[in-house]
Each structure stands twice: as structure tokens, then as C-alpha cells.
Structure prediction request, 142 residues.
Amino acid sequence: MNPKGVNLSDVWWDVSPVRHAKCNGRNGANELPLKVLDRVIELSTDEGDLVFDPFGGAGTTYMAAEIKARRWLGIEIGPTDDIVQRFAEIEQDSKILDDQRKELNALFSAQVRVARERAGWWTCESVRVADEEKRQRALNLG
Ligand SMILES: C[S@@+](CC[C@H](N)C(=O)[O-])C[C@H]1O[C@@H](n2cnc3c(N)ncnc32)[C@H](O)[C@@H]1O
Prediction:
């Protein structure tokens, strides 16, 4: 992550399980979200590095590695048709990753921010506005 951005904690509470019906049908594999592999690969490799995942499953590691310009190598004991098909539709995963990366270094995702606003809880934006109002009041008093 950006060294000037949000710290990445040990527990990644912002990652949801893959629930999309189409994805869940893949291989019956316990598919990891692209977000997890995006982070793992981003944190541990540079472009052109080789990523090895010996438990292919739905091929999320390979997909993330491919999109992120890493070389990759994999093994899967079960069927790999779904991985091959996934690569034929790589633009779908590419778009998912692009959309996720737009929210990189944001404390709350757009969805969480809206939910917090609706609940009347603080958001980064509300704190900024409150801070600015405080600063203006202080200037006016001075
Ligand atoms: C949890 S899934 C991996 C999910 C994958 N990382 C993803 O997100 O798409 C584990 C996979 O490892 C495979 N597997 C288990 N034992 C294996 C072995 N000895 N050699 C190769 N693959 C194996 C299973 O068939 C299963 O598809």
C-alpha cells in the first residue's frame, strides 16, 4: 500500500467472501477474493517476478498475477476447465481489480461510507468538514 496511506492491519476485515453465483460455481473451490491476492502479490513481489501457487482452485492467484504483470506457475489436482474459462474472460476480473484499486488507501469503501452517513456516524469527509469549520471559527475569533 502507499506508505503515506492507510496502514494495513493484521486482520483484513474489508474483504468479503466470494459470493457471486457464477464464481461460487467454479470447481466447487473455496475461491479467494481477488482483493486478497492483489494485496499479497503487491506486498511481496515486483512486476516480472514469478508467483507460484500449488493449490490452483479457481485460479485467483494466477489471474491476479497475470493482471499485475507477474509471471505465474500453478498446480491443481482437480479440474482446471474453470481456470481456463476464467482466463478467456480476463477482462471481467481486470475490471473488478480496477474498481477495487480505486478505493486503495481509503479508510472506508464507498459502500461503507454511505452506510455510515445514513447511520449518522462519522466519516473522513465529515471529520474534514468539522475540522474546517473549527479552523474558520478560530480564525474569526482571532
Ligand atoms: C482453497 S482451494 C484454492 C483456492 C484458490 N487459491 C483460489 O482462490 O481460487 C485449494 C485447491 O487446492 C487443490 N489441491 C488440494 N490438494 C492438492 C494437491 N496435492 N495438489 C494440487 N492441488 C491440490 C484443491 O483441489 C483445491 O482446488
The chain has two domains: 1-106, 108-142. Strands lie at 50-53, 71-74. Helices lie at 21-24, 34-44, 60-67, 81-88, 90-101, 110-119, 124-141. The longest helix spans residues 124-141.
